[in-house]
């Protein structure tokens, strides 16, 4: 099966695209994040008055020039009804990433060597809910023929491949809130192992709908105490935290084999140097004691990269702002890094945009790459009084200028699935 | 042009995102207007909704042009 392989090939990042609660466009979103802005506000997508959680991070509506999102600027109107919102987000982020990379495969071989792997935690939930209501009202025959292809998770990858003619591996990851990291890591492996030369990889999510919010409320996972002060609701590690804030959007990167990128003179943002995974084998939603799964995923990632903890300067934490998870992750990082905790910066960008579920790992991977590029650790907003002290600097409230050579990004999902990925400064 | 024809053309323009001038009576949904098989299914559902008629699958299969649609709907309404 792997007989033709000698050593894994190097993989670099050559394009990035984002749609998230801070807006559309990597440059715009990053600037707002470093300015300490929050994308959290009252829910506008539906009437949430009956729910205990009435806030979320919605992608702002408006024109591209304002750094906001108007789907009509990105996707032909007649095609929009064929795709749930999560697919539309994926397309927007993919268009930015592909254009940013400058990669246009011109030969059939190039097209065959370019694949797509964009995952989602939940997929077309609003579409499923609407169609379920029609069936319940006895209107089964009125369902759109586009219902199923609009809701299927792998159709995000499908639409991107159709738009650009990318004929390589077409795949989709579904691992709840770990989806984004798994997609980036798995896609990087496909390149490293020779299945593709270029992969458009990422995560996307659009679960801010009545059934999605009600479901997470029922699981007692969401913040409910900050409905009147939404920008303060996502507060990782702060003693006042009471659950995560739902976000939406997509993050997509273009991953490329190093020599391939060099040969065409592509701008290289960073190298993917390590990726690791683990399973908790413990509980459907709660992390294991000491966040053992997170510890093992991070350890596997460092081993994969062949580096030691003291070589890492920044960690983008999973840090969702839940009472239990944040401190357990911190404990796992402290255990792994030991002496190297001193001088380490770790922040949670979910404090500004909420939790994008299946898109989280992808957008946070992009933030980690930008942290390396610009030598700045993005802040953890609303972290006034940590519930647990630590020698690790959690970059409270303000960004910090730091020399960052290597950054680690964590994502953990329901079901006890954990993944971490390591980026290094462009070679 | 009959009211039915006007309404059919409007629906076709909206659903397929094509220019009105292209929606001639002879235009084929798939060959001339860029529809795929799922688009035509949805188009027939839109006709059913707009005109309050029922178009069974075997009849829908035979509706391939704008004129086919207009004729079928007018026949149903006359019946």
TrEMBL record, chain A:
Residues 8-425 form the Ketosynthase family 3 (KS3) domain. Pathway: Lipid metabolism; fatty acid biosynthesis. Keywords: Acyltransferase, Fatty acid biosynthesis, Fatty acid metabolism, Lipid biosynthesis, Lipid metabolism, Transferase. It is an enzyme of class 2 (transferase). GO terms for biological process: fatty acid biosynthetic process. It catalyses: a fatty acyl-[ACP] + malonyl-[ACP] + H(+) = a 3-oxoacyl-[ACP] + holo-[ACP] + CO2; (9Z)-hexadecenoyl-[ACP] + malonyl-[ACP] + H(+) = 3-oxo-(11Z)-octadecenoyl-[ACP] + holo-[ACP] + CO2. GO terms for molecular function: 3-oxoacyl-[acyl-carrier-protein] synthase activity. Its EC number is 2.3.1.179. Involved in the type II fatty acid elongation cycle. Catalyzes the elongation of a wide range of acyl-ACP by the addition of two carbons from malonyl-ACP to an acyl acceptor. Can efficiently catalyze the conversion of palmitoleoyl-ACP (cis-hexadec-9-enoyl-ACP) to cis-vaccenoyl-ACP (cis-octadec-11-enoyl-ACP), an essential step in the thermal regulation of fatty acid composition. This is 3-oxoacyl-[acyl-carrier-protein] synthase 2. It comes from Teichococcus aestuarii.
Automatic annotation (TrEMBL), chain B:
It is found in: Cytoplasm. GO terms for cellular component: cytosol; membrane. Residues 2-77 form the Carrier domain. Pathway: Glycolipid biosynthesis; KDO(2)-lipid A biosynthesis; Lipid metabolism; fatty acid biosynthesis. Gene3D superfamilies: ACP-like (1.10.1200.10). The modification O-(pantetheine 4'-phosphoryl)serine is found at residue 37. It comes from the Bacteria. This is Acyl carrier protein. It holds the Pfam family PP-binding. PANTHER family: ACYL CARRIER PROTEIN (PTHR20863), CARRIER DOMAIN-CONTAINING PROTEIN (PTHR20863:SF76). 4'-phosphopantetheine is transferred from CoA to a specific serine of apo-ACP by AcpS. This modification is essential for activity because fatty acids are bound in thioester linkage to the sulfhydryl of the prosthetic group. GO terms for biological process: Kdo2-lipid A biosynthetic process; lipid A biosynthetic process. The gene is acpP. Keywords: Cytoplasm, Fatty acid biosynthesis, Fatty acid metabolism, Lipid biosynthesis, Lipid metabolism, Phosphopantetheine, Phosphoprotein. GO terms for molecular function: acyl binding; acyl carrier activity. Carrier of the growing fatty acid chain in fatty acid biosynthesis.
């Amino acid at each position: 099966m792997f007989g033709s392989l000698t050593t894994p090939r190097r993989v670099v990042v050559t394009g990035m695209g984002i749609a998230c609660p801070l807006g559309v466009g990597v440059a715009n979103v990053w600037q707002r994040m470093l300015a300490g802005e929050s994308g959290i506000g009252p829910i506008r997508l539906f009437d949430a008055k009956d729910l205990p959680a009435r806030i979320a991070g919605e992608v702002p509506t408006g024109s591209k020039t304002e750094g906001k999102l108007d789907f009509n600027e990105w996707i032909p109107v007649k095609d929009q009804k064929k795709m749930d919102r999560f697919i539309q987000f994926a397309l927007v982020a993919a268009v930015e990433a592909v254009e940013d990379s400058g990669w246009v495969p011109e030969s059939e071989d190039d097209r065959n060597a370019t694949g797509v792997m964009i995952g989602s935690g939940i997929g077309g939930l609003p579409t499923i809910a609407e169609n379920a209501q029609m069936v319940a009202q006895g209107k089964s025959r009125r369902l759109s023929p586009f219902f199923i292809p609009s809701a299927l998770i792998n159709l995000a990858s499908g639409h991107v491949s159709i738009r650009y003619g990318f004929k390589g591996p077409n795949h989709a990851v579904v691992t709840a809130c770990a989806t984004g990291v798994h997609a980036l890591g798995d896609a990087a492996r496909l390149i490293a192992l020779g299945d593709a030369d270029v992969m458009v990889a990422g995560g996307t999510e659009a679960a801010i709908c009545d059934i999605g919010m009600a479901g997470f409320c029922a699981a007692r996972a969401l913040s409910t105490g900050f409905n009147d002060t939404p920008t303060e609701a996502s507060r990782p590690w702060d003693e006042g935290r009471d659950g995560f804030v739902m976000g939406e959007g997509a993050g997509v990167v273009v991953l490329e084999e190093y020599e391939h990128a060099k040969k065409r003179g592509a701008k290289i943002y960073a190298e993917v140097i390590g990726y690791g995974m683990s399973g908790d084998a413990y509980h459907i939603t709660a992390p294991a004691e000491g966040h053992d799964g997170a510890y093992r995923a991070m350890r596997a990632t460092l081993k994969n990269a062949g580096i030691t903890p003291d070589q890492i300067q920044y960690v983008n934490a999973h840090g969702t702002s839940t009472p239990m998870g944040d401190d357990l992750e911190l404990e796992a990082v402290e255990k792994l890094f030991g002496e190297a905790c001193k001088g380490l910066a770790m922040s949670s960008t979910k404090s500004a945009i909420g939790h994008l579920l299946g898109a989280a790992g992808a957008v946070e991977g992009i933030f980690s790459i930008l942290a390396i590029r610009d030598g700045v650790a993005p802040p953890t907003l609303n972290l006034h009084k940590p519930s647990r002290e630590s020698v690790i600097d959690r970059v409270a409230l303000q960004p910090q200028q730091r020399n960052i050579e290597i950054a680690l990004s964590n994502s953990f999902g329901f079901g006890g699935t954990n993944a971490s990925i390591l980026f290094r400064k462009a070679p | 042009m009959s009211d039915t024809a006007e309404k059919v053309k409007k629906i076709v323009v909206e659903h397929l995102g094509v220019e009105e001038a292209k929606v001639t009576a002879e235009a084929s949904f798939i060959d001339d207007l860029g529809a795929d098989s799922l688009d035509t299914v949805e188009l027939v559902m839109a006709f059913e909704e707009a005109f309050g008629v029922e178009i069974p699958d075997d009849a829908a299969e035979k509706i391939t042009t704008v004129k086919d649609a207009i004729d079928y709907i007018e026949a149903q309404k006359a019946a």
